[in-house]
Known about the structure:
Blueprint: E1 4-9, H1 15-26, E2 29-31, H2 33-43, H3 47-53, H4 76-98, E3 101-104, H5 108-111, E4 118-123, H6 126-136, H7 145-167, E5 179-182, H8 188-198
Helix pairs in contact: 1-8, 2-4, 6-7
Amino acid sequence: MNKIITIGREFGSGGRELGRRLSQELQIAYYDQEIVTEIARRTELSERYIREIEEHQPLLSFPIHVGRSFYPAPNPVWDQRMSVYQEQSSIIREMAEKSDCVIVGRCADHVLRDMAPLRIFVYADMESKIRRCREKAPEGEKLTDKELRQQITAIDKRRAKYYEFFTGKAWSDRLNYDLCINTTQRVIRDMAPVLAKMV
Length: 199
C-alpha cells in the first residue's frame, strides 16, 4: 500500500507549506491545486468557480408545496456542488492509488480512510496566522488586523462546516487525526525535515 499523508489545516497556519516541504523531503507527490485543475479538466467548470464552491457547505432547499408533505425541489447549485465533491473524491483516490503522496485539504483523510493515511492537522494561534497571511499577501493588500482576523475566522468556519457536512465529524476534533501540529511561532522549513524523519 502506498504511503499517504493527508493534511487538514487552519487558514494561515502554514499547513500548505508544510505539506509541500514534507513532500519534497520525502520525494513523493504533492497534491493541492492540482486537484482543482483536474476537476476543471473533467467537468469543464472553471478553476475559479471550483475554488469558490469546493470548501462551502452545500445548501439544501426544501420549499413547502401544497398539501402536508415537503418535497425537495431541483437545485442546480446543490447538484453541481455535490458533483464537484464526488469528482474530487474520485481524483483523490486515483492519486493515492497511483503513488506515495501528500494531499492537502478536501476531506482527503475521510475520502481515503480505508487506505489508512497518516492524518495530520496543522493549527496556530491567531497572531501567528495573521503574521503568515501578511507575509504571503499580494503586494498592495492593506488589510487591518481586524479585517484579517475576520477573514481567517470566516474561512475556518467554512472549512469546518464543509468537513462536517461530508464526513459527519468535527473538523478540529483531534481524534480525527494521528498527529496535530501547532505551528505557533515556528518556522515551517525547520519543521519539515523533523516531520519527514518521523514519517
